[in-house]
Amino acid sequence: MQEALQAVLGWGFDQMQLHRIDACIHPDNAASLKLARKLGFVEEGRLRDAGFWLGQYHDLLQFSLLAPEFAARQAAA
Fold it and tell me: Helix, strand, or coil here: 54?
C-alpha cells in the first residue's frame, strides 16, 4: 500500500500541481494512521462526528501533506 500511495501522491503533486492533499482517518484504523505518518502527513485535529456509517456517527482524524513537504521527503530519499 505504501508504494501505491507514494505513486498517487507523486502524481497529485507533480502532474496535477496540487499544493495540499488531505486524509481523514478513523482513530481506530492503526494501519492507516501509521502509513499516513510514515509518508509525512501531519495530523491537524479531530473532526467530531464527521463520518456516518452503520447507523453511527464517528470521529475522524484530519491529516494533510503539502507539496513542499512531499518534495523535501522525496529529495532526502
Answer: coil
What's the whole-model pTM score?
0.91
Q: Read off the pLDDT of residues 7-43 as tens digits, 9 standing for 90 and up.
A: 999 999 999 999 999 999 999 999 999 999 999 999 9
Dihedral, CA atoms, 53, 55, 59, 61, nearest 10 degrees?
Answer: -10
How many angstroms separate the CA atoms of 66 and 42, rounded?
Answer: 9
Residue 50: helix, strand or coil by DSSP?
A: strand
Q: 70 is in which domain, residue-wise?
A: 2-76
- The CATH number covering residue 39 comes to 3.40.630.30
Q: What is the number of structural domains in the chain?
A: 1
